[in-house]
Fold this sequence. Notes:
There is one protein chain. β8 (about 255), α9 (about 260-275) and β9 (about 285) form a beta-alpha-beta unit. The chain has helices spanning about 15-25, 55-70, 85-100, 115-120, 150-165, 190-210, 220-225, 230-245, 260-275, 295-300, 310-325, 360-365, 375-380; strands at about 45-50, 75-80, 100-105, 125-130, 140-145, 180-185, 215, 255, 285, 305-310, 350, 355. Mean pLDDT is about 90; it is low at about 1-40. It has 2 domains: about 5-140 and about 310-355, 3-Layer(aba) Sandwich (Rossmann fold), CATH 3.40.50.2300; about 150-310 and about 375-380, Rossmann fold (3-Layer(aba) Sandwich), CATH 3.40.50.2300. A 6-stranded parallel beta sheet has the order 2-1-3-4-5-11, with helices on both faces. It has a 4-stranded parallel beta sheet with strand order 7-6-8-9, with helices on both faces. A two-stranded antiparallel ribbon has the order 10-12. By secondary structure, the protein is of the alpha/beta class. It comes from Cellulomonas cellasea DSM 20118. One of its GO terms (cellular component) is outer membrane-bounded periplasmic space. Keywords: Signal. This is Sugar ABC transporter substrate-binding protein. InterPro entries: Bact_Solute-Bind_Prot2, ChvE-like, Peripla_BP_I, SBP_2_dom.
Amino acid sequence: MVMKRFKFAAVGAALVLSLTACAGEGAGSTSEETGAAGGDGGEKSVGVAMPTETSERWIADGNAVKEGLEGAGYTVDLQYAGDDIPTQSQQIDQMITKGVDLLIVASIDGTALSSQLQAAADAGIPVIAYDRLIRDTENVDHYVTFDNYKVGVQQATSLLVGLGLQTADGAEGTATGPFNVELFAGSLDDNNAHFFWDGAYDTLKPFIDSGKIVVPSGQTTIEQAATLRWLQETAQKRMEDLLTGSYSGGEKVDGVLSPYDGISRGIITALQNAGYGSGDSKMPIITGQDAEIASVKLIRDGVQFATIFKDTRKLAAQAVAASEDFLSGAEPEANDTKTYHNGVKVVPSYLLESDIVYADNIQSLLIDTEYWTEEQVASGQA
Length: 382
């Protein structure tokens, strides 16, 4: 996957500098001390467990973390688990057996790693939860992520903007509705899915209560809206069922809350197969997340309305900074020590900011920052 977004100045210097610019330096570190001079990792090794290679987002995260850590002088064991829980458990077991000095884990199921993390704790191996909180264990030491409740707020906000109920600057829109909207959520075993849902639903609820938004299916709980493993095919099937069950009398879908671009594309396929987007039938307002290149092109083409940009370069940089702190005996910087309770304890966290991508800011948010190139956006391929 050759993309400009992996320009880390060959040895990770730019990775750390981007962190310094956007997120502050880690505790006990300066920009000169966190790999900008080539790193001083010695013989230490880091195990990086990522959930899947079926999403370009996780490929980007894995590559960025690996490049940053190697630039700082560490040996890296990067593994993808194909969205299979036993495989990820086995991979982490193997990393511990091989004697890694630190683990970075983006879990498939945040409740399924208790025995592995106990083994890590017994071996004195710190654990960083990457983007997805690991639950029901005391053996997770740090969490790097985005402000996931705010991501949900942004998703709902983009839906409201698209419907005309609100303006991009937060003012009341001119539209009055009522609008038919259906709600999708992520996978229930991913802790982030609940934060996304809470932020989005809290934002939409006043409009639902006032009648400006109607959910014809009546499916307004996260359990009803969930999409196991965030799969595009699962979302497409549910959207097809919704159209058959709740829109068979000629009613039209005006908007769909989607928490992830892959889910969005499944929804879009179902809608297009039902005739939306052709002739006089407009495509509903559809949200997303992760700024995947196929969806960015759909936004530019007027098919998908918006997505949420979570710059994985910043997240990887923060994970690298936290890793260097742990491996040098320092305490990583946390900017949130209250929000992320994993069922056993509050996990010290570092939260990053995200942005709403509309058609009119693709250039400034994604191309000018070299996350995607103009050619990639035009083709929809990385």
